[in-house]
Amino acid sequence: MKITSVSSVLLEPIPWVLIKVNTDEGITGLGEAYHGAGVHHIAVDARLTQRALIGQDPRNVDKLFRDMMSSMSASGFYQGAVMSAISGIEMALWDITGQALGVPIWQLLGGKFRDRIRLYNDCHAGDEETAESYAKVAKATEARGFDAIKFDIDPKPTQRDKYNRCISNNDIAYFIDVITAMRDVLDPNTDLAIDAHWFYTPADILKVAYAIEDLNLLWLEDPIPPENVDAMAKITQSTRTPICTGENLYTRHGFRELVQNQAADIICPDLAKAGGLSEGCRIADLADMYYIPLAPHNISSPIGTVHACHACAASQNFLVLEFHHLDNEIWNTLTVERELIKNGHIDLPTAPGLGVTLDEEVARKSTKENLGFFD
Ligand code: MG
Questions:
Q1: Residue 221 C-alpha to ligand 1 middle, in angstroms?
Q2: Is residue 128 over pLDDT 90?
Q3: What is the CA(296)–ligand 1 centre distance, in A?
Q4: pTM of the prediction?
């Protein structure tokens, strides 16, 4: 079997990047790359496709992953948009391999630890942003079957100096009020996570982390800017509130310092940019050497989300997978199989390869730019 072409499509309104890999035996693989400017162009760039993919056997997934990394420069080291494109192609190669062998992707990744993948729903309180409105949305989301929920605590720009990262005493009190109000209305066994979106100083966000320790959050995510592992380690070691980070890191090498320093209690790689499914499992295994759970970041369409489910099923330390699109009509109709989410979980597909089928008519209607996908 040989790869004959690689194509991509950029959807809208959410700029999901889908990648299709065709073969000379009629098997087609589908993957999804994290959206970012130019990712759908990079995925079909001849330096990637001609040098590493066209004419090659798609079933040598890990070899082609290495070849893609070295196709554009001898260093073979990439982050950013190039690694996102490679991640989406890698998923498509697994889809082809699974179809060729007649098994689901999770089987190829070593088999499954679980039959369904637990999701957490990323929520927004709406325009009002009172403690009551947060609690109302939290309760309503729980009622829709999710036993894990996440909210952002982003300060309003008018309430802070956006450069010094400090939090006023009023905002600290507000954050604690909001989190406490949500925790109070949720079932004690429903997990609540909070994302601080990299805004704050260690000293100030620790005031919040200390105050909510007895609320048993699932995690506090990205409490400080992401670049400094030492600073993140200080936060993690200073509070009983679990700290989660990692959605901006690429490949196992990007996670090594974070994990070896035990600078997070939970890691959240985005598999559609961190390197795809094999690399996602390697990152999970690296973290598992320190008994750190895996909770992947995910804002993908159902294609990338179900791909992530295969890696989550095959990783012992999987905790929960992010979901962002509860009432998004395109998310709910982009696969032929509808209603993928039941009671806050996705049942692991059993069909060969990815195991779900793109509804090409829905994709066509949502297409912003087509680089050969439907040719
Ligand atoms: Mg986040």
A1: 6
A2: no
A3: 10
A4: 0.97
Does residue 159 come out as left (phi exceeding 0), alpha (psi in the -120 to 50 range) or beta? alpha
Sorted by where each begins, the domain ranges of the chain are 3-102+358-371, 108-347
What's the mean pLDDT in 323-340? 94
CATH superfamily of 3-102+358-371: Enolase-like, N-terminal domain (3.30.390.10)
pLDDT score at 50: 96
108-347, CATH topology level: TIM Barrel (3.20.20)
How far is the centre of ligand 1, averaged over its atoms, from the C-alpha of 103 (Å)?
33
Per-residue pLDDT, averaged over 26-46, amounts to: 96
Distance 293 CA to ligand 1 centre (A): 16
119 CA to centre of ligand 1 in angstroms: 15
Q: How far is CA 100 from the centre of its chain?
A: 27
**Can you tell me the distance from the alpha carbon of 217 to that of 87, in angstroms, rounded to the nearest whole number?**
31
Residue 30: name the closest of 103, 76, 93, 82 by CA. 93
pLDDT in tens, 83-121: 999 999 999 999 999 999 999 999 999 999 999 999 999
